[in-house]
Design goal:
The protein is mostly helical. The protein has a single domain (2-99), classed as Cytochrome Bc1 Complex, Chain D, domain 2, CATH 1.10.760. It has helices at residues 2-15, 27-35, 46-49, 64-76, 89-99. Helix 2 packs across helix 5 (89-99) and helix 4 packs across helix 5 (89-99). The chain is globular and about 30 Å long. The termini are far apart.
Length: 106
C-alpha cells in the first residue's frame, strides 16, 4: 500500500509541476519567477538581463496588459520558453513584481 501511495503522490506532483504560484498573485511569487531560469530553456532568468530592475525605467507608465505582453515576448524570445497565460497567477505575480521597480529610476 505504501508503494502505491508514493506512486500516486509522485504522479500528482508531476502533473502539477508546471504550476508555479499555488495561490493568489504575490510579490514573493513574482520575485521567485523573475529570478528563476525555469521559465525557459536558455538557462537565463528575467534577472539575467534586468538585475535589480535594470532597464525597467518608466515601467509605471505601462498597463498590466502591456507588461504581460512584454513579459511574454521576453519569455518566448530571450528565455526560449512557453508564454504564460496573461490571466494566470504566475503572470499577475510577475506584473506585480515588475511594478515594484516603478520609480526606482533604473
Amino acid at each position: 500500500m505504501k508503494l502505491l501511495s508514493g506512486s500516486v503522490v509522485c504522479a500528482v506532483l508531476i502533473s502539477v509541476g508546471g504550476a508555479w504560484a499555488a495561490g493568489p498573485p504575490s510579490l514573493e511569487s513574482g520575485q521567485q519567477l523573475f529570478e528563476s531560469a525555469k521559465l525557459g530553456t536558455s538557462g537565463k532568468s528575467c534577472s539575467s538581463c534586468h538585475q535589480g530592475g535594470k532597464d525597467l525605467k518608466g515601467i509605471e507608465a505601462s498597463s498590466d496588459e502591456q507588461l504581460a505582453a512584454t513579459i511574454n515576448r521576453c519569455i518566448a524570445g530571450a528565455l526560449k520558453g512557453k508564454r504564460l497565460d496573461p490571466e494566470s497567477s504566475d503572470m499577475k505575480s510577475l506584473v506585480l513584481y515588475l511594478k515594484s521597480f516603478a520609480g526606482t529610476g533604473k
